[in-house]
């Protein structure tokens, strides 16, 4: 019951859908052509940005799946200390999930790899994943690894118990990093948001470093390094007021709610955007590694996970089909009615009664006025002649 309650609290979590989309766009800018080709094949024409927020849909349908998206650390081992212990029973946590889904895909490609096993029944009874679903989970999970409060601490419930004042509202520290910064940038800097900032060239040096270390250390050590960097970021940036330097969480935290003014927002905005870009280039590294391999052609397309979003989409499609059929019937009805329109028939008949005789006159007698004058005189003379039959013999 404790785990269920915790999962329900997490069910509305992770970067919002727009942030995941930005991560996916950054990833797409760094992916090789072969990887792009393979992901479009597997996703039915969609790319990384189109499916980046798919994990939200799964969590909405299977709330306990949210546990896979967090690496919650135990405060007993020391808050933001050198030693940390994560709550990861049965490998149900963020780092192990990333390793698991990565290993599942490589295994299906025919590559040999040892990876953590996860009993899906412990988070979602009856759920099954396809190869395409494994990839979608990876895209979502690597993104979540860079939302700092996905790797936070248990006592403050990953920042949910830490209250701050942001833009006139009191909200949790988690919500600030999850969606509030994103909403401010999108609504108040829409030209910037839509202006192509989600390109790997913005973090080119970090991308080069990550690619080099991936080759040197391998995937699992890279995932572990990314987690270490994420926790360091959380402890030094997300859990600390950006201008005063005071702690927002932990044993020496400032009592709240603490004001996040414009200067503090600007500091966090810069860091938040960088996290999106770093998450995108690292997602591309993972996808390139998987999809550039010749075994990628073995990976199956389609999805085995049926979500509430799928049901809503099916209902919407059914409504569109119903409206389309109704419009077709109305068009056929209007077309049929046009063939027996009595008003149109009488109008055409009247026009014909005038134009046909005139046409025949012109055809037979031409357009010479003298001809018509003679014709009129002959008609008048015939009307003036005596009427009656021949004389009867007596």
UniProtKB/TrEMBL annotation:
<comment type="similarity">
    <text>Belongs to the nuclease type I family.</text>
</comment>
<dbReference type="Pfam" id="PF02265">
    <property type="entry name" value="S1-P1_nuclease"/>
</dbReference>
<feature type="region of interest" description="Disordered">
    <location>
        <begin position="302"/>
        <end position="334"/>
    </location>
</feature>
<keyword id="KW-0255">Endonuclease</keyword>
<dbReference type="InterPro" id="IPR008947">
    <property type="entry name" value="PLipase_C/P1_nuclease_dom_sf"/>
</dbReference>
<dbReference type="GO" id="GO:0004519">
    <property type="term" value="F:endonuclease activity"/>
</dbReference>
<feature type="compositionally biased region" description="Basic and acidic residues">
    <location>
        <begin position="307"/>
        <end position="328"/>
    </location>
</feature>
<keyword id="KW-0479">Metal-binding</keyword>
<protein>
    <submittedName>
        <fullName>Endonuclease 2 (AtENDO2) (Deoxyribonuclease ENDO2) (Single-stranded-nucleate endonuclease ENDO2)</fullName>
    </submittedName>
</protein>
<keyword id="KW-0325">Glycoprotein</keyword>
<feature type="signal peptide">
    <location>
        <begin position="1"/>
        <end position="19"/>
    </location>
</feature>
<keyword id="KW-0378">Hydrolase</keyword>
<keyword id="KW-1015">Disulfide bond</keyword>
<keyword id="KW-0732">Signal</keyword>
<keyword id="KW-0540">Nuclease</keyword>
<dbReference type="InterPro" id="IPR003154">
    <property type="entry name" value="S1/P1nuclease"/>
</dbReference>
